[in-house]
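Lecture 7 notes: from sequence to structure.
We start with the chain below.
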Amino acid sequence: MNKHILSVMILFLIIISVFLTPIEVNGNGLNNAIEMLQAAINPSISELPHAFEAALVTLSYAFSAIGIALIASFTLSLFASELLKSSRAIVIVIHHIFSASRAVHELIWALFFVTVFGLKPMSGILALAIPYTGMLGKVFTDIFKQLSDSSIPRLKQAGASNGQLILYGYLPQAMPQLMSYTFYRLECAFRSSAILGFVGIAGIGMKIGLMLNDLRFNEMFTYIYVLILFIILIEIWTSQYRKRKYEVFSFSAFIFMILISWIYIAFVKGAYYDQLLSSRNLQYGIKFIKNLLVFNNSSPAFTDLLEIQKVLLLTLKTIQMSFVAIFIAGSGMLMTVILGTKKYSHPIIYNATRFIYIVTRAIPELIWAMILVFIFKPGIWVGALALGIHNYGILSKLCADVIESISNKPLEHLKSTGANRSQILIYGVIPTVINRFISYTIYRWEIILRTTIVVGIAGAGGLGYYFKYHFSLFHYTNVTLVILVFMILVKIADILSAKFQKNLI
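Predicted structure tokens for the same chain:
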């Protein structure tokens, strides 16, 4: 199918989804919005020490999880990329592990681990480590596959073993890219750690949820501002590494923080990891898996045509939510992306726009959804708006950075012909960046689709609401049905987006 026809069809579906999504304000929504704005201007200073403590706990979870994910993904990706000799079957199995582990959101993993192991630190750490292993592993594998072989023949002639080839030939090439992506995922893991608070795991997310439920908006915004501050600090650190500044120091600090986090969780938080392997927890785990896999249920939900019909209808709602969300994020990006570039914006406007990008993406989707439920009636619009606001900040930053990175030579040529600023943007900048913009938008839509289940838990409808409802009632075969449908949905989205992006090349 022609890529232009396909693009028009997708755009048509997105516009239809927007028009079919009702916007309903709560009866007291306007007053709640005003009250929140007033609280945002006047946060509770007395809560700052508690907010920093909660943020440090959350950060320790993020570092601990990234530490596990880094070791697991690095090892598996060596086999998946065939740098370490492995059979075709092993490569396929590892690719499926990466795909399956990242398809299920970390909040869902957290619900499972909390159900089996209880509210222990390792429940949260494992919930983060599993999906991040899949995310890191996929990218690490691609990085290893793209490495140059130029230095390998000399090492082989010197009698280097396979391990030495990796250590002295491939790893020095790959290390900057591996660490750059790991630092990016660290920022994501910190936001994800905050979300874990909504299943009862200690940290800044749990505090925000408690303050919001108690209508203590002033205290809530104190925690939100500290969350944003930590995101900014992590971003400054990671940006310095990407600029190849203080590389050795940054890498050493990264490893040190992982070790400190494990020590803190083990001794300060009192996490004794051997308890996870107790016979009692093993029995709980086996029982839970049996419930999910129907061993204890003679009439599972996925054999019930009525339940399947309900889930398929909710799947359409979920897709609708993702389309509206990417429309919000993409529209916002197009309206502000030029303002977020140093080349074409006033310094004051540039800094203000970049700050908006940071704030919108620093606050996780689930927190946005929980705040918006106080203003709008629960439903598709709340989830789409929460996802749209969060991804607006991410997508806008990515696209603004693309504009910043393009070569000046073609633009200088246009300028020499007498083209003004608007003409340079229309005829020089936009044709250069449009494919990258579309690629990033598709990439963010995939992530939005995966995250719809999370905002659904907050009352945004779709598959997430169905999941939360049946999980709370211990209807585990319904939970299994949702997970299966959701994994199929994410897989189809992966395939379609890959084909669409291939057509862009």
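Points to note: The mean pLDDT is 83. The two ends are 15 Å apart (CA to CA).
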